[in-house]
Amino acid sequence: MTPTKTKTLLRTPAARNKPQASREAWKLRTSENGIGFLQVPAFSAFPWLAHGFSISQGGVSPLNGSKVLNLGFTEWDARENVQKNRKLFQSALNANEFALVSLKQFHSDVVCDFSSTPKEPCSGDASISNTPNLSLSVQTADCVPILLLDPKKRSVAAVHAGWRGTLQRIVEKTIGRMKMEFKTNPSDLLAAIGPAIGGCCYEVGTEVAAAFLSQFANAPEWFDELRTGDEPNPLQWLNQFPPGHQPPPKNVRLDLRKANRAQLLSAGLRPQNIFVSDLCTACRPDLLFSYRKQGSESGRMMSVIGIRGENKSSRK
Ligand SMILES: [Zn+2]
């Protein structure tokens, strides 16, 4: 199911130097219908769970001369292609019988509870549920997708965290809702932080750095360089610009996955229960969609998690 070739695909130069354990934390699988997706073995260990992070490979959507697995309704793609792709993805995850619930994402901190009476569409950026045969999903093309699993209370969550959602602590708030609704103990939770734009590529304005610094004590660890745009320019007489016409300060780079991992830790998760993909969407156009890289021609990936029903034969 995971030939050596696929493992190599998943390893960036940085990952090759990491301990074996982190390499083994993610698997690239290809289903019989040709759909590639990423899974975390620690999640796959539960036979009553379906989960996966889609990649761009497989699917029926035509893009730049090839076919891709676009799972979001975009202007360049036909609705029926997306619906077909979603069916293919569900089938790849062996979750044909699941109802796929999606969110109207708007970079908020709103958590939708799909436990008792799933109401669609729900506007929000995270969903929680303990109802079987429901696929919770988030769509991304650079933002951070996070799947949460409480194996003890048999409940799950899917979270979409861009910089705005991260700043608003969407993942911490989702865990708060799981505590309230399912009596989740955060130290039982497993978390998978999927492919997203990395600290290598994600440039943001210094005003974003300033916003993070005002909210998080450890924010400096998430930026390549700590600048908020308020710094005096010591070199202002050493360039060719007249005084008062200095170029605006350049951007800083933000590592959103680090920021979300820190939030998971501060919410009470154990470090060994947090699995972070090191695939950067902007660095890997061969495998992933990146809005920053591909612009309006970018597809959308989907991250899905759901609980299998009682009558499922695979249940232990
Ligand atoms: Zn990158």
Order of the strands making up the biggest sheet? 1-2-3-18-11-6
| Alpha-carbon distance between the two ends | 22 Å
Please compute the radius of gyration using only Cα atoms: 20 Å
**3D shape:** globular
Q: Estimate the mean pLDDT confidence.
A: 88
Helix content: 10-25%
Largest sheet: 6 strands, mixed
Question: Topology, please?
Answer:
Elements: H1 4-10, H2 13-16, H3 20-23, E1 27-30, E2 36-39, H4 41-44, E3 49-54, E4 57-63, E5 66-68, H5 79-92, E6 99-101, E7 103-104, E8 111-113, E9 122-123, E10 126-129, E11 134-140, E12 144-150, E13 155-161, H6 163-167, H7 170-182, E14 190-193, E15 203-204, H8 206-215, E16 252-253, H9 256-266, E17 274-276, H10 291-294, E18 301-307
Parallel strand pairs: 6-11, 7-9, 8-10, 14-17
Antiparallel strand pairs: 1-2, 2-3, 3-18, 4-5, 10-13, 11-18, 12-13, 12-14, 15-16
The protein binds zinc ion.
Give an account of the 3D structure.
The chain has about 325 residues and is an alpha+beta fold. The protein has two domains: about 5-195 and about 270-305, CNF1/YfiH-like putative cysteine hydrolases (4-Layer Sandwich), CATH 3.60.140; about 205-255, no CATH class. Helices cover about 25% and strands about 25% of the residues. It has a six-stranded mixed sheet with strand order 1-2-3-18-11-6, with helices on both faces. A hairpin with a 4-residue loop joins strand 12 and strand 13 (about 155-160). The structure holds zinc ion. Zinc ion (ZN) binds near residues 198, 200, 201, 280 and 282. Zinc ion binds near residues 198, 201 and 282.
